[in-house]
């Protein structure tokens, strides 16, 4: 049987704040979301990582992945195509030099860049947050949290969705789910 990695064999990731969500990727890497600003694990740490990081199977930081999220990442879901849906209380992601506005939910490409085709908006309460995510087999995304409104890609107005909403794979609001 395979031995579980431990600090004795080098698996020693460390972050300077709270880890709130983790997700396993098919290739053995691990996504880590939370409320932190740095990875402090061996052998390289500390390295700035704002609220979302990807670590290799051995616990080292995957330095090629740096979405730079401006608020806590509280939920993660991995799609079969390798894209990642993140939820939390953030309002922007800056994987390069430009911040992309994303309100509490976003989809990232496998390289950490923002998927520009998916841009819903969750809000409505004093402190809206996404606390749970699920990607269904048909590609629809279910989000749960403290929000009371949901706005589809490019929609001029928001619809009432009290703490649970479902979006189609293209980011449009699923009107059949209310």
Look at the helices and sheets and give the structural class.
mainly beta
pLDDT below 50 for ≥5 consecutive residues: which ranges? Answer: none
Strand order of the largest sheet: 1-2-5
Q: How large is the count of helical segments?
A: 0
Radius of gyration: 16 Å
Report on this model:
With 178 residues, this protein is mainly β. It is 0% helix and 35% strand. It is built from no helices and 16 strands. The protein has strands at residues 18-24, 30-35, 38-39, 47-48, 52-55, 73-78, 84-88, 92-93, 100-101, 105-108, 121-123, 130-135, 141-145, 149-151, 159-160, 164-167. The strands form six sheets. The chain has a three-stranded antiparallel beta sheet with strand order 1-2-5, with no helix packed on it. A hairpin with a 6-residue loop joins strand 8 (92-93) and strand 9. The N and C termini lie far apart (46 Å).
SSE layout:
Layout: E1 18-24, E2 30-35, E3 38-39, E4 47-48, E5 52-55, E6 73-78, E7 84-88, E8 92-93, E9 100-101, E10 105-108, E11 121-123, E12 130-135, E13 141-145, E14 149-151, E15 159-160, E16 164-167
Antiparallel strand pairs: 1-2, 2-5, 3-4, 6-7, 7-10, 8-9, 11-14, 12-13, 13-16, 14-15
Short description:
This protein is an all-beta fold and 178 residues long. It has no helices and 16 strands.
Name the descriptors.
178 residues; three-stranded antiparallel β-sheet; 0% helix; mainly beta
């Amino acid at each position: 049987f395979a031995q579980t990695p431990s600090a004795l064999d080098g698996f020693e990731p460390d972050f300077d704040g709270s880890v709130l969500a983790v997700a396993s990727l098919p290739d053995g890497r691990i996504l880590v979301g939370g409320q932190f600003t740095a990875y402090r694990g061996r052998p390289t740490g500390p390295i700035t990582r704002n609220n979302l990081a990807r670590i290799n199977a051995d616990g080292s930081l995957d330095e090629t992945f740096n979405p730079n999220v401006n608020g806590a990442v509280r939920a993660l879901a991995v799609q079969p195509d390798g894209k990642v849906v993140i939820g939390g209380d953030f309002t922007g992601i800056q994987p390069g030099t430009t911040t992309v506005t994303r309100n509490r939910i976003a989809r990232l490409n496998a390289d950490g860049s923002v998927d520009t085709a998916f841009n819903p908006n969750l809000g409505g309460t004093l402190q809206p947050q996404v606390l749970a995510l699920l990607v269904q087999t048909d590609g629809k995304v279910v989000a749960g949290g403290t929000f009371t409104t949901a706005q589809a890609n490019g929609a001029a107005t928001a619809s009432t969705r009290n703490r649970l909403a479902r979006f189609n794979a293209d980011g449009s609001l699923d009107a059949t789910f209310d």
